[in-house]
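Course exercise 7: structure representation. Students receive a sequence record and must write out the corresponding structure in token form. The form below is the worked example handed out in class, using Helix-turn-helix domain containing protein, AraC type (343 residues). Read each field label carefully; the graders check that inputs and outputs are placed in the correct fields and that the protein name is recorded exactly as given.

STUDENT ID: A-19
EXERCISE PROTEIN: Helix-turn-helix domain containing protein, AraC type
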Amino acid sequence: MASVMSDLTVSKHFVQAALGGAERLGFDTREMLREAGISPDLLRIEMARVSSDQFSHLMQVLWNRMGDEFMGLGPRRARTGTFATMCALVIDCPNLESVYRQAFQFSRLFEPMVSMELEIGEDKARLVARMEGEINDPSFFLRESILVIWHRLGSWLIGQPIELEKAEFDYPRPPHGDEYRHIFHCPLAFESDRIALTFDKRFLSAPVIRDKPEMRQFLKTSPADLLSRPDESNTFTGRIRALIGRDFSKPLPDFEWIAAELHTSPQTLRRRLKQENTSFQEIKDLLRRDMAIYYLSRQDLPINDIAAKVGFTEPSTFHRAFKKWTGVTPGAYREGERGNLPD
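STUDENT ANSWER:
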């Protein structure tokens, strides 16, 4: 159970954005949602969220049903298996620089090209999006996905997160811009002249530590899992989540204790969390929210018991907090998950 609960939830925005191309092309998206275990009713709740399992499943349903890894959002189809073929090519690369160069060479075989190109400066490296042709991506989902997949694939191959120093976007901050804080964990720049990720050049010499059997295992759920399940074990956010644990019925550790456990001062930890676009309070709140959503999907648990499990002594306080997180009461949320929302 712990593994399910350690997963973050995914905003309804990304569910609808992922389905945008399928909807435009006339696919039955309600059927796709049901196949992924998501009640279409849930999406009527303004601030609804789904589990990373459900989101991962939805991505796989989309790719397989549409036969297009660009999900109808790109300038052309990317036939199912394109990503896996690229991975088979880069697994033999000696280091990260070689991975990104090979991946770019592979992507530019297709026309129009949709790729990320590595640019190396004196001490910084940058992955810059190269997109040719007309894209149908009004919610920016294709552009976000390509950045996330190239970043997280590289991190997985070298066995450590590539710490981003900046993420740039050549469009205005979108309405769901707040979600970017938790996707990229670095300073964000909108209305830039490019779409790019900047990181320290030292990562490029990191050796590829994965082998072919690991890659075969990885591809069973990728790139869907790369989008829905970031590996945050090396971020301060992820390490704090692990230290807090899942039992909110007991008093939570305080910030000073957590800083000591992470061998840092409270001041430094506050600064590092600010760099990761979050705070200690927000980490606790989001953990509580995600645990509450997880427990509500287990229909046998009374709502008052869930309130206690996520650390609220008063059910009324839990109701207020949950409404702030999702816009509806825990009861209405559960009805949405069951598909029983009244019209």
